[in-house]
Amino acid sequence: MPRLSGIDIPNEKRIDVALTYIYGIGEKVAKDILKQAKVDPHIRTKNLTGEELKSIQAVIETLPTEGELRKMVRDNIETLKRIQAYRGIRHSMGLPVRGQRTRTNARTRKGKRKTIGAVSKEAATTAAPAAKK
Protein backbone atom coordinates (compact mmCIF):
# COMPACT_ATOMS: atom_id res chain seq x y z
CA MET A 1 0.00 0.00 0.00
CA PRO A 2 1.83 3.15 -1.16
CA ARG A 3 2.03 6.22 1.06
CA LEU A 4 1.62 9.70 -0.39
CA SER A 5 1.57 12.77 1.88
CA GLY A 6 1.50 10.47 4.91
CA ILE A 7 -1.68 8.71 3.77
CA ASP A 8 -1.95 5.05 2.74
CA ILE A 9 -3.74 5.01 -0.59
CA PRO A 10 -5.65 1.86 -1.65
CA ASN A 11 -3.90 -0.67 -3.91
CA GLU A 12 -6.85 -1.96 -5.91
CA LYS A 13 -8.24 1.40 -7.10
CA ARG A 14 -7.24 3.43 -10.12
CA ILE A 15 -4.69 6.08 -9.22
CA ASP A 16 -6.99 9.00 -10.11
CA VAL A 17 -9.53 7.71 -7.57
CA ALA A 18 -6.93 6.69 -4.98
CA LEU A 19 -5.48 10.20 -4.84
CA THR A 20 -8.84 11.56 -3.65
CA TYR A 21 -8.23 9.78 -0.31
CA ILE A 22 -5.81 12.61 0.49
CA TYR A 23 -7.47 15.61 2.19
CA GLY A 24 -7.47 18.54 -0.23
CA ILE A 25 -7.36 16.49 -3.42
CA GLY A 26 -10.59 15.98 -5.34
CA GLU A 27 -11.27 14.44 -8.73
CA LYS A 28 -10.22 17.50 -10.77
CA VAL A 29 -7.01 18.13 -8.83
CA ALA A 30 -6.11 14.41 -8.98
CA LYS A 31 -6.39 14.46 -12.77
CA ASP A 32 -4.30 17.64 -12.93
CA ILE A 33 -1.63 16.04 -10.71
CA LEU A 34 -1.44 12.97 -12.93
CA LYS A 35 -1.24 15.12 -16.06
CA GLN A 36 1.66 17.10 -14.56
CA ALA A 37 3.42 13.92 -13.41
CA LYS A 38 2.82 12.32 -16.84
CA VAL A 39 1.13 9.22 -15.34
CA ASP A 40 -1.76 7.33 -16.94
CA PRO A 41 -4.90 7.92 -14.79
CA HIS A 42 -6.32 4.49 -15.68
CA ILE A 43 -3.48 2.50 -14.12
CA ARG A 44 -4.06 0.73 -10.79
CA THR A 45 -2.12 1.93 -7.76
CA LYS A 46 -0.44 -1.45 -7.26
CA ASN A 47 0.99 -1.30 -10.82
CA LEU A 48 2.78 2.05 -10.34
CA THR A 49 6.56 2.09 -10.55
CA GLY A 50 8.78 3.83 -8.01
CA GLU A 51 9.57 6.61 -10.48
CA GLU A 52 5.88 7.32 -11.10
CA LEU A 53 5.21 7.46 -7.36
CA LYS A 54 8.11 9.89 -6.89
CA SER A 55 6.85 12.17 -9.65
CA ILE A 56 3.30 12.15 -8.19
CA GLN A 57 4.70 12.88 -4.71
CA ALA A 58 6.76 15.78 -6.10
CA VAL A 59 3.65 17.38 -7.63
CA ILE A 60 1.58 16.83 -4.45
CA GLU A 61 4.23 18.55 -2.32
CA THR A 62 3.63 21.79 -4.23
CA LEU A 63 -0.04 21.84 -3.10
CA PRO A 64 -1.43 22.46 0.39
CA THR A 65 -2.81 19.11 1.60
CA GLU A 66 -3.59 17.26 4.84
CA GLY A 67 -2.30 19.02 7.99
CA GLU A 68 -1.13 22.16 6.22
CA LEU A 69 -4.53 22.69 4.56
CA ARG A 70 -6.43 21.90 7.78
CA LYS A 71 -4.31 24.50 9.59
CA MET A 72 -5.03 27.09 6.88
CA VAL A 73 -8.79 26.49 7.14
CA ARG A 74 -8.68 26.66 10.96
CA ASP A 75 -6.67 29.91 10.85
CA ASN A 76 -9.12 31.46 8.37
CA ILE A 77 -12.07 30.63 10.65
CA GLU A 78 -10.21 32.02 13.69
CA THR A 79 -9.54 35.24 11.75
CA LEU A 80 -13.25 35.58 10.94
CA LYS A 81 -14.08 35.12 14.63
CA ARG A 82 -11.43 37.59 15.76
CA ILE A 83 -12.57 40.39 13.45
CA GLN A 84 -16.21 39.72 14.43
CA ALA A 85 -17.31 39.11 10.84
CA TYR A 86 -20.83 37.75 10.39
CA ARG A 87 -19.49 34.37 9.31
CA GLY A 88 -17.16 34.27 12.32
CA ILE A 89 -20.02 34.97 14.71
CA ARG A 90 -22.06 32.17 13.11
CA HIS A 91 -19.09 29.80 13.50
CA SER A 92 -18.70 30.65 17.19
CA MET A 93 -22.45 30.28 17.84
CA GLY A 94 -22.54 26.91 16.10
CA LEU A 95 -25.14 28.00 13.54
CA PRO A 96 -25.17 27.60 9.74
CA VAL A 97 -22.67 29.94 8.12
CA ARG A 98 -23.80 30.14 4.50
CA GLY A 99 -27.27 31.63 4.78
CA GLN A 100 -29.34 28.50 5.37
CA ARG A 101 -32.61 28.82 7.26
CA THR A 102 -32.64 27.97 10.95
CA ARG A 103 -36.32 28.08 11.88
CA THR A 104 -36.58 24.50 10.71
CA ASN A 105 -33.74 22.15 9.77
CA ALA A 106 -30.11 23.11 10.62
CA ARG A 107 -30.01 20.21 13.07
CA THR A 108 -26.50 19.23 12.08
CA ARG A 109 -25.13 22.56 13.30
CA LYS A 110 -27.59 23.28 16.13
CA GLY A 111 -27.52 19.82 17.71
CA LYS A 112 -30.31 17.89 19.38
CA ARG A 113 -33.63 19.70 19.90
CA LYS A 114 -34.22 21.37 23.27
CA THR A 115 -37.96 21.71 23.81
CA ILE A 116 -39.04 24.93 25.51
CA GLY A 117 -42.64 24.63 26.60
CA ALA A 118 -45.27 26.93 28.11
CA VAL A 119 -45.80 26.79 31.87
CA SER A 120 -49.33 26.49 33.23
CA LYS A 121 -50.56 28.88 35.96
CA GLU A 122 -50.57 26.08 38.56
CA ALA A 123 -46.98 25.08 37.82
CA ALA A 124 -45.86 28.73 37.80
CA THR A 125 -47.37 29.40 41.27
CA THR A 126 -45.76 26.30 42.78
CA ALA A 127 -42.41 27.02 41.13
CA ALA A 128 -42.27 30.68 42.19
CA PRO A 129 -42.05 30.04 46.00
CA ALA A 130 -39.46 27.32 45.41
CA ALA A 131 -37.33 29.73 43.37
CA LYS A 132 -37.34 32.35 46.16
CA LYS A 133 -35.81 29.95 48.72
UniProtKB/TrEMBL annotation:
PANTHER family: 30S RIBOSOMAL PROTEIN S13/40S RIBOSOMAL PROTEIN S18 (PTHR10871), SMALL RIBOSOMAL SUBUNIT PROTEIN US13M (PTHR10871:SF1). Residues 92-133 are annotated as: Disordered. PROSITE patterns: RIBOSOMAL_S13_1, RIBOSOMAL_S13_2. Keywords: Ribonucleoprotein, Ribosomal protein, RNA-binding, rRNA-binding, tRNA-binding. The keyword Iron-sulfur does not apply. GO terms for biological process: translation. Residues 100-115 have a biased composition (Basic residues). It holds the Pfam family Ribosomal_S13. GO terms for cellular component: cytosol; small ribosomal subunit. Signal peptide: none annotated. Part of the 30S ribosomal subunit. Forms a loose heterodimer with protein S19. Forms two bridges to the 50S subunit in the 70S ribosome. Gene3D superfamilies: 1.10.8.50, 30s ribosomal protein s13, domain 2 (4.10.910.10). GO terms for molecular function: rRNA binding; structural constituent of ribosome; tRNA binding. It comes from Candidatus Collierbacteria bacterium GW2011_GWC2_43_12. The lineage of its organism: Bacteria, Candidatus Collieribacteriota. The keyword Manganese does not apply. This is Small ribosomal subunit protein uS13. It comes from the Bacteria. Residues 123-133 have a biased composition (Low complexity). Belongs to the universal ribosomal protein uS13 family. Located at the top of the head of the 30S subunit, it contacts several helices of the 16S rRNA. In the 70S ribosome it contacts the 23S rRNA (bridge B1a) and protein L5 of the 50S subunit (bridge B1b), connecting the 2 subunits; these bridges are implicated in subunit movement. Contacts the tRNAs in the A and P-sites. InterPro entries: Rbsml_uS13_C, Ribosomal_uS13, Ribosomal_uS13-like_H2TH, Ribosomal_uS13_bac-type, Ribosomal_uS13_CS.
